[in-house]
Amino acid sequence: MIIVKSRFHRTFLAFVALLILNLSIIAQSWAAEDESRWQFSIGLGLGVRTNPVMDNDDIPLVILPQFSYQGERFFIQNLDLGYNLFQNNKQELNILLTPSYDQIFFNEWDISNFVDRSNLASMAGGAKDSPSLEANNRAIDKSRLHDRHVAALAGVEYSHTIYDVDIQVQLLQEATGYYDGNEARLAISKSINVGKHDVKLTLGANWQNAATINYFYGLPERESPGNFAYEPNAGLTSLLRFDWAYQLDEHWSLRFFTSYRHLSHSISNSPLVTENNVVTAFAGGVYHF
């Protein structure tokens, strides 16, 4: 017998069932649709995402596929699945299922390394100035660390447009049973269109509770050398992002984006972390199918 441990898990299972139902409806309607609701593009270029975790290499960005589907209610945006509850000219309320972000710094192969999560995702970097933590860092045996799995986050997403400024809020709960954490994300963005140029500036913040940060950046006693266990509190990470695109023709466009993510003190003070920020940049061409 399978026992559902919490009300949230029951809600999550109901949400998954709803998504499956919508997928079946979509599959039945595809044959009757004259125009596809799918959109695909692939970016080819050079880029990098810096890695703040000790001894881990920066993450190259060379191929960035993007895909989306927009149905009557159900939608897919890269790695996000959602269901629209309400929408008008200025407001939108969705149920959302999205993967966690922080595991990309620990897992060499992660699907998030190949998809640009531009909704609420990530210059010179600044190193921490804590000799005791850096000394402990050098003594940590990474083979003893627990695996950081890709978690599914489920919750609600609310968007509002005021004077051509887009405000987006996500309230998310970890739903896969790895650490039972939650996050609150805020993004404020402004888009400017001049001819074939599209420019977008985004300011964002991501609050994570102690359970979330502890799962990814904590160091329990069984994994730490000596008595250097680390159990973080909740923290707030901030984000600044710039996007630019230039349409060349029907299929090709040029693209550049860069972001600066300033990590919360609870993350940057971890013995596993050697930088207090994450810098992402990419420049290349995008082919739209």
Automatic annotation (TrEMBL):
- Going by the entry's taxonomy, the superkingdom of the source organism is recorded as Bacteria
Q: From which source organism is this entry?
A: Cellvibrio zantedeschiae
Pfam families registered for this protein in UniProt = MipA
- Where located? Cell outer membrane
Provide the protein name.
Answer: Structural protein MipA
The UniProt keywords, alphabetically, are: Cell outer membrane, Membrane, Signal
The principal localisation class reads membrane
Please verify whether the record's keywords include Chaperone.
no
The answer to keyword Iron applying to this record is no
Q: Which family does it belong to?
A: Belongs to the MipA/OmpV family.
